[in-house]
Structures are given as C-alpha cells and as structure tokens.
Specification:
424 residues; alpha+beta; Thrombin, subunit H; 6-stranded antiparallel β-barrel; 6 helices; 21 strands; 16% helix; elongated; serine-type endopeptidase activity; membrane; hydrolase
Length: 424
C-alpha cells in the first residue's frame, strides 16, 4: 500500500505470459487524456528533447564592419550645451525650493527661527492721519493732565497756553499746596487752585508751566445721539488712557452728590465710552478732536464708590456750561449760577416740575408763572419732575430766553422766560 503519490498502472500480460515491453517511442494510451503519455510533465518516462534556437542577428552593422569615412561625425558641442542647460535648470529649481522650504519652515541662516511674514515693510513713522481716531488721540493727549491731590488721582485738560486747566470740583476737593499734575510725556509740574463751583462740579487750577498746548473747544449744543466720542483721562490710575464710544443721549438730567454734601444737577451728555474712577475731569472729545464735555459721573451697579465701575453709562458736563463757569472763575473768582426765580418740588411724580414758590419780580413771575403751576416742557425738552427743571436751567447762561409750557389746573399755557444769575 502506498499513498498513491508514485502509483503507476502495471503493464498488461503478453500472450506468452511474459510482460509486454513497450517499443521505443511508443506508450500506451492514457485513459484520462489524449496524448497524456507523451506529456513530460505528466509522465516522467515520456521521451523529451531540448532544442537550442540560434540567437537573432544583431541590429546595425556587423561588429567587424569597417566605419564609413564619408559618414558625418557627431561633435561634442551639443553634448556640452545640454549638460550646461541641465545644470543651470537644476540649480535654479533647487535654489527656489530651498528658499520656499526655509521660509515656510521658519528657518533662517544660523539655525534661528523667523516669525511673521518675510519682506514686510516696517513703517518709518507711527503717525496717523490727523483726521483718524489715532490722529485725534495723538493731538489731544499732550493737553490732558493727571491731577494728583492728597494721594487721590483725577484728570483735567489745558485750556490756555499759560496753564489754566479745567477739571471737576470733586477732584480738587481737599487740595493743598502739594497738588501737582503730570503730562503725557512724563513731565510734572506743581499746580494751585484758582476757584471752584461745587454745584456745577467745575473747578479751575493753574499749572506752573508756560508754553502749553490748549485743547480745541467745540459746541456741545451741536452734538447728536450717535456721534463718535473719545474719553481721555487716568482711570484707576492708568494714565494717558483713551477709550472710544458714542453719544448715547443728550440733556440727560441727573442728580448726584454724597449724603450731607453738595447736591449737583447735570443736564449731561451720556456716553458708552468706558469711564471709571480717575477719569473725572478729563475731556470728552468728538471724532474731529474738539472737546464737548467734562467727564464727571458714572452710573454703576456697585453699592459703594470702591465697587463702582464702567457699565457703559457715563455722563459729562456740556463744555458750553463748563467753559462759561470756568471763565467766571478765572475772571471773578466765582461762578454765576443760572436761576428761574422759583422753588420747585422734587421727589414727586407730577408729570412735570411743580413750582412750590415763585419769587416776586423774578424771571418766572415776570413771565406770568405762579406757585402751583407745573412746567411740563423747557425749550421743547419734556420734564418729569423738579430735578429736570433745575438741571436744564443751569445748563443755560444767565440772560438766556427759554420757552416753557406749563399746566395750571386743567388748562395749559406757554410763556417765554428770561433766566437770570443768582444774586447770592
């Protein structure tokens, strides 16, 4: 028994009883395929032969053929030119790729790292267009000062070449001989108090320095809601700070002041420019570089002054009012207060300013107003209570003529009132 791997069919018996030997070249037929016995891959006893084929004749002339003397020979010049052009192209491509990889990879000669785009032109100057916001800031900053009083810090701005500076009254409260100012270039100078008006919250100081550059004063009556503004000052002792915003409201009447102190009334310019403690007394400037207000008050959600911070509600004294008060202080040492000649009730919602008492021969009495009348509008501005009337009256200069609308009982009427200066 085998595994069948080398199995072969036994030869058929001869008639004589001897095994029949196959003749040379003749094999018995395979029952599985035709021609199988002669297939050398199927039957190792099949006859096979190896036949050698002659190689194909070589191409071209015979090796032993003599060269043709009349055939033109190929020169070396084309070969040299091709080699030269190839070398130049390879050098150019290699140099270009090397430069690109070096720039993109951030590598420079010496193994250092190059940051930023290559080939950037560095400007020769940082000056901006004078009409841009940066140009306005560059022009105004030299006229803005940081006021230092008894360890406290406020702001102010130069209004004359000989050193007069406008600031807030509450900034210079408690000022002594140690008061000083610093400028945007880092220089400092001593300062003295010229005069103050607590009710308008305007004060004037004089800096011991000549040749100063005053700001350009604008017209606060011409501004409109939405105008761009810049606020300058030293918020939280961060000197030379500039913030940007818009005019959020005009003639915003507010009442401010500490308990037991002076009550201040403002018909203010409201802005969303960031203003914080230390901005007080600094200028509020238009996009054209003109001062239209004095930053004075902020509205905050903090329960105390130390917690107060910017929430986009800041208020500035209109420059027309601040300029008038400052001129009075410089010229006479005292500011004139504008009055209507009547006492008003505050804290009630009467749909206007109710007159509690009218002074005889005063502006209101002269215009025909009486005690008990309720003024509902002043120069077209609606009034809600007595605070609105006081703030709007003080915004105007003495001698100004204003139109008022008032209610007496169930009837309404109008009048023109010539405001006056307080004689006290």
């Amino acid at each position: 028994m085998t595994d069948g791997w080398n199995w072969r069919r036994p030869p058929a018996p001869h008639a004589s009883g001897e095994p029949q030997q196959p003749s040379y070249g003749q094999q018995p037929e395979s029952p599985w395929w035709s021609g199988g016995p002669s297939d050398p891959w199927r039957d190792p006893y099949a006859a096979s032969a190896v036949v050698l084929q002659p190689p194909p004749p070589p191409e071209g002339p015979p090796l032993d053929a003599a060269p043709n003397p009349d055939q033109p020979r190929r020169g070396l010049f084309p070969v040299l030119m091709i080699s030269l052009v190839t070398a130049l192209l390879a050098g150019a491509v290699g140099g270009t790729l090397g430069f690109v990889f070096a720039v993109r990879g951030g590598y420079v000669e010496g193994g250092g790292t190059q940051l930023g785009a290559s080939g950037q032109n560095v400007p020769e100057s940082t000056q901006r267009d004078p009409d841009s916001l940066a140009g306005v800031a560059e022009r105004v900053l030299p006229s803005v000062v940081t006021v230092r009083v008894s360890g406290a810090i406020g702001s102010g701005f130069v209004v004359s070449t000989d050193g007069y500076v406008i600031t807030n009254d509450h900034v210079v409260e408690g000022a002594d001989d140690s008061m000083s100012v610093s400028f945007s270039d880092g220089s400092t100078a001593s300062a003295k108090l010229v005069g103050r008006d607590p009710e308008s919250d305007v004060a004037v100081i004089k800096v011991a320095k000549d040749g100063l550059t005053p700001v350009s004063l604008g017209n606060s009556d011409e501004i409109a809601v939405g105008d761009s503004v810049l606020a300058f000052g030293s918020p939280l002792a961060l000197v030379n700070t500039v913030t940007y915003g818009i005019v959020s409201a005009v003639d915003r009447t507010i009442q401010a002041g500490e308990d037991g102190g002076t009550t201040r009334y403002y018909a203010a310019i409201q802005t969303d420019a960031a203003v914080n403690q230390g901005n007080s007394g600094g200028p509020l400037v238009t996009a054209s570089g003109q001062v239209i207000g004095v930053n004075s008050v902020i509205r905050s959600v903090g329960s105390s002054d130390t917690e107060a911070g910017n929430i986009g509600l800041a208020f500035a004294i209109p420059i027309n009012q601040a300029k008038r008060v400052a001129e009075d202080i410089i010229d006479t040492g005292k500011a004139r207060r504008t009055v209507i000649g009547a006492e008003v009730m505050t804290g009630e919602t009467a749909g206007g300013a109710r007159l509690r008492k009218v002074e005889s021969a005063g502006p209101a009495a002269t215009a025909g107003l009486r005690s008990g009348d309720v003024i509902t509008r002043l120069d077209g501005h609606p009034l809600e209570d007595g605070t609105d009337l006081i703030a709007l009256v003080r915004k105007h200069a003495p001698g100004s003529v204003v139109a008022v609308e008032y209610r007496r009982g169930t009837k309404t009427a109008s009048a023109s009132v010539t405001l006056a200066a307080d004689t006290n």
